[in-house]
Specification:
Oligomer: single chain
Radius of gyration: 23 Å
CATH class: Mainly Alpha
CATH topology: Growth Hormone, Chain: A
Number of domains: 1
Distance between the termini: 39 Å
GO cellular component, one term: membrane
Strand order of the largest sheet: 1-2
Strand content: under 5%
Membrane topology: Multi-pass membrane protein
Number of strands: 2
CATH superfamily: MFS general substrate transporter like domains
Organism: Aspergillus nanangensis
Keywords: Membrane, Transmembrane, Transmembrane helix, Transport
GO molecular function: transmembrane transporter activity
Order of helices and strands: HEEHHHHHHHHHHHHHHHHHHHHHHHH
Helix content: over 70%
Structural class: mainly alpha
Largest sheet: 2 strands, antiparallel
Amino acid sequence: MTRDSEKEDIEHIEVSPDSATTVPTYDEAATKKVLRKIDVRLLPVLTLLYIFAFLDRSNIGNAKIAGMNDTLGLTGAQYNMALTVFFFPYGLFEVPSNMVLKVTKPSHWISFLMVAWGIVMTCQGLVKNYHHLIVTRVLLGVFESGFFPAASYLVTTWYCRFEVQTRMAVFYAAASIASAFSGLLAFAIEKMNGVGGLEGWRWIFIIEGIATVLVAVCTPWLLVDSPESCSFLSPEEKQFITQRLAHDSGHTGTEVGTSEKFEWAYLKSALTDWRLYLGIVIFWGNTISLYGYTYSAPTIILGLGYSSANAQLLTVPPYMLGVVSIITFSWLSDSRRIRWISIIWPYTIAACGLIGLLAIPHPRLTGLTYAFLFTIPAGSSPPIMGVMSWFGNNLAPSWKRAIGMALIISIGNLGGAVGSNIFLQEQAPNYWLGYGFSLGIVLASIVSAVILKVTFSRENAIRERMDEAEIRAKYSQAELMEMGDKNPLYRYVI
């Protein structure tokens, strides 16, 4: 196809008589063609990178049952502390990281972070005692902190509102794939016990750390930064993407800022938006229950009477169901153009499973216990995509979105510190605190999602009753864009 024919297919822009507003209409076939080009270049790379990110933070659970605790002489409390200290720097540095992301190339920033945490992961395989392990876990939290908010924000700079969640789900599903793959990989690497005079659990960290560094070095050439700077789109296609994002406000003829300069007002607007804190509670439903499960699942399954090797392998099927659940609920959310269903429905599944785990007698009914474990990844994994897409859709302009999304992830990920300490060794095999606390936060997440649904719907209804002519007479187009999601012509996604 020639450049002229591409332009003819893609550009369908109507200009209103007063020239105040550019209203785009798009050919569906042309839109799908351009989005497919972006999908092929962006999503596989983000998926690969996220597999390494989640693999590197969670493989300590596999190392534990491969002999790490015995070698280092760790008590149950010390192991839990090694899990916990990761999350404090991980939460602290996410907002600053996304602010750096806005003023540099995402591919370069993410590459730097990956090289750093890959080196730390390799060093974790060489630790000699508890204190060395604590240091490496803290540093791992520092350098991994920037990846997920950067990847989530990057997706919102390429896709419109109801294209975001399914795309996010593709790379986030990599977390479940990584968790499943972690068990298989640990099972294989553990066989290297004695190679180079090192225990098998050390090789889990060393090999995965080296692999992370190798992938990180290639990232600047693999990851695309923005529609404006990419080389795989034509100039007309770049303009097409930029224009449709600018008009993605939920109201015909309204624009939102996509390349505004930083102002402190955007930081204040994000920090004082009370809805963000309900988003954090929803995020906690994922991090507390799922991290608690991720770090404890190998031990729980080991306690069902399986060998260490089989326990590693049996962690795989629940995570694979989690992958299916993430993709399914995200697709439903985008196709139906509503976000709350991808939060409330899956959390209801998790709640039912957690009630079952609290109710059945332990250690009897081991098969039923294992079956109920499937509901935690299946129910707790999808809502994180729901809440990130929901706020990615409902925060504007782009600086507020970058800060707000990072804030949710930052405070939300502190839930991992809680989840790391609720499955107590002395409570095995009942784990009353672990299952009970997870159930409580899942129910709180459901309530928070209901409140958000009601308040967003009410605000949209109020704005629908406003007179558009009066609004445009009162504010200039530039002022409306600067207002972002406070713009009375802006419509929230429900």
